[in-house]
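Supplementary Methods. Inverse-folding protocol.

Structures were first reduced to a discrete structure-token string of length 229. This string, shown here, constituted the complete conditioning input.
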């Protein structure tokens, strides 16, 4: 066996006497690797916990700040709801300051609804597209508002699609028939009479007894006459 050089012997001596070297020697290769993996898991888990804790606190603060903006919205004080009153934040500031929180997400819904009322239809679309909810009726309402914005912009195809999504998401007699009537109107404005009949058929077949049922039958007969079917 070749004799070790003085540099190799020196490095081996330093490694053996270092804390890491002693640990490697005591634990063995497998034990040492296991310890490193365990430490990494602890660090990552701690980081995730701190991130979630920080996000939770941030969302709590955002919800508290949003309370006054919601009040102004309900009172139809739209400018105050949008921009704040000098002491309390408006929805736009909540989106900027608390991005990534549920409060910011919900603020996009409110801002979209406000811009729609103010006839700022493209701005309404921009914010409504940034909103999503697991609450089906709220999400259905957001799809309906998105459809309204598309209608005002003359994009009847996308409007019809949004109304149909609203109807399928709500999936009940209270809201779906009204959304389907809007889908039919959007298709008619697009000039697609056959497509306009389909939402009416849905009402007639699946929503008997609703307030929209008679209207669906009447409009279907009219459209069939226009389509020559």
């Amino acid at each position: 066996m070749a004799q070790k050089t003085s540099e190799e012997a020196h490095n081996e001596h330093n490694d053996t006497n270092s804390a890491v070297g002693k640990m490697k020697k005591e634990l063995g290769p497998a034990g040492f690797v296991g310890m490193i993996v365990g430490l990494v898991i602890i660090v990552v888990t701690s980081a995730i916990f701190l991130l979630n804790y920080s996000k939770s606190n941030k969302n709590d603060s955002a919800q508290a700040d949003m309370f006054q903006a919601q009040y102004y919205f309900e009172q139809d004080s739209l400018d105050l709801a949008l921009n704040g009153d000098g002491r309390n934040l408006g929805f736009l500031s909540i989106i900027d300051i608390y991005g990534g929180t549920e409060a910011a997400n919900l603020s996009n819904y409110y801002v979209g609804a406000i811009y729609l009322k103010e006839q700022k239809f493209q701005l309404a679309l921009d914010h409504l597209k940034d909103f999503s909810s697991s609450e089906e009726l709220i999400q259905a309402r957001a799809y309906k508002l998105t459809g309204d914005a598309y209608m005002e912009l003359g994009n009847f195809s996308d409007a019809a699609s949004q109304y149909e999504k609203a109807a399928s998401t709500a999936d009940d007699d209270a809201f779906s028939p009204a959304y389907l009537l809007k889908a039919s109107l959007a298709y008619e404005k697009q000039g697609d009479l056959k497509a306009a009949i389909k939402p009416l058929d849905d009402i007639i077949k699946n929503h008997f007894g609703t307030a929209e049922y008679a209207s669906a039958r009447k409009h279907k007969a009219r459209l069939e006459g226009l389509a020559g079917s």
